[in-house]
Amino acid sequence: RDQPRSRGLGDVYKRQLEACVNYTKMDLRDQQLSGTIPATLTQLTWVTYFDIGGNALTSTIPASLGLALPNVTFFDIAQNQLTGSLPPSIGSLAAVMTLRVSQNKVTGTVPSSLASLRLVKDFSVGYNQFTGTLPRSLASLQNIENFNVCNNSLTGQLPPRLDSLDHLVGLTVSNNRFNSTLSALSLIHISEPTRP
């Protein structure tokens, strides 16, 4: 039996764009897409829902991707094979409430610009290859409900007061290299909510 042939994100995106210039939802999850995130994914000012997760994309994340999606509230690029660093421009997603970058091969540090995501509730960058310390400013994300940075190579301490944010119900920080004083804290909330 023939296996379904993978497609490039650029081709699928072009067809969607030609079909409807004013769509607000770009849902390409689990479409067996391969290759890179094209540079043509720019100026998507009308998009509020952006999901390209669950594919086989292998590129770096375009440096300007966050600037291209000023009105997005749902951003999911998880479960691909994306490499390189997480661009600081992701911190420009001012309206985002769900941010999922987990289960890729993203390296480098978690950018401090993510502290600008004041509305974010679901913050998931687990199962990557992040290193360094978490920015202390992430503790200013007052609307956080689920915070997942597990299975990276993060070091140092968690941002102060992160575990006492008013709306926090899930804190998943296990399988990193945080110092020993955090070992108990990493077990407070070990499960990540299932995808709706």
- End-to-end Cα distance: 32 Å
Largest sheet: 7 strands, parallel
Q: Which descriptor suits the 3D outline?
A: globular
Number of helices: 1
Helix proportion of residues, in percent?
A: under 10%
Category by helix and strand content: mainly beta
What does it look like?
The protein has one helix at residues 9-19, and strands spanning 7-8, 25-27, 33-35, 49-51, 56-57, 74-76, 98-100, 107-108, 122-124, 129-132, 146-148, 153-156, 170-172, 177-178. It has 196 residues and is mostly beta strands. The radius of gyration is 17 Å and the shape is globular. The two termini are 32 Å apart. The model is unreliable at 182-196 (pLDDT under 50).
Q: How do the strands and helices of this protein lay out in sequence?
A:
Blueprint: E1 7-8, H1 9-19, E2 25-27, E3 33-35, E4 49-51, E5 56-57, E6 74-76, E7 98-100, E8 107-108, E9 122-124, E10 129-132, E11 146-148, E12 153-156, E13 170-172, E14 177-178
Parallel strand pairs: 1-3, 2-4, 3-5, 4-6, 6-7, 7-9, 8-10, 9-11, 10-12, 11-13, 12-14
Descriptive terms for the model:
seven-stranded parallel beta sheet, mainly beta, 1 helix, globular
Explain briefly what this protein structure is.
With 196 residues, the chain is mainly β.
